[in-house]
Specification:
Shape: globular
Largest sheet: 7 strands, mixed
Helix content: 25-40%
CATH superfamily: Vaccinia Virus protein VP39
Structural class: alpha/beta
Order of helices and strands: HEEEEHEHEEEHEHHEHE
CATH class: Alpha Beta
Strand content: 15-25%
Number of helices: 7
CATH architecture: 3-Layer(aba) Sandwich
Strand order of the largest sheet: 7-6-5-8-9-11-10
Bound molecules: zinc ion
Radius of gyration: 22 Å
Number of strands: 11
Amino acid sequence: MSAFGSWYWHALVTASYVGSRFRKLPRRYPRICNICGYEGSFGPAGKGTRNNAKCPRCKSAERYRLFKLWLDRQPQAFQGKDVLHFAPEKSITALVRPLARSYRTADITPGRADRVLNIEAIELPDASVDAVICFHVLEHVDDAKALSEMFRILRPGGTAAIMVPIVEGWARSYENPAIITPDQRTLHFGQFDHVRYYGADLRARIRAAGFELEEFTAEEPDVFRHGLIRGEKVFVAAKSAG
Ligand SMILES: [Zn+2]
């Protein structure tokens, strides 16, 4: 290689290395991941539809960081409790398992969790768990059955933590029994296997199963600091102790 060729090659490699390091530096929108402690820019999520959404270190999406914020403020919901987690997300498992007295996961699909359970007809006795976690499940199922089953298996004083995709500007959830193919469901409900898109009447549906309802909402300064979705909620459904 000629002297010039060697210099050129060296300059190219150096520029490429410097560029790659620079791209990893925190840039315009630094965040703090409240799960893993990472500080810096977040990456896109949702196939690129949500910017500043995913922590590059622990891969947490917005809703996991929202849950962690709620958990830090209300750890007693799980501390020393018997917990059942439907359609388990690994990041949520890592947060809750260390707090719980017993922690089990459940899914309708074999191999995905500790137990195969159908949330519309849960094969567990009445009043047998203290806490249920059910994130992004209700939009896939008969939610009246699922909510009443969750209420049944909870002990008095127990809690169900619920998250769903929701359009708060809609008074009523959008359901349409004529929409049945995967493509139609994607078009109408946002995902191939969703059967509705929730509106604000989610609250009435939760209460109809017997629950009392509180809401933990993504607000400032948490939103900008931790890269949350503005107004996203953990719905905290409680079975009265009395
Ligand atoms: Zn993280």
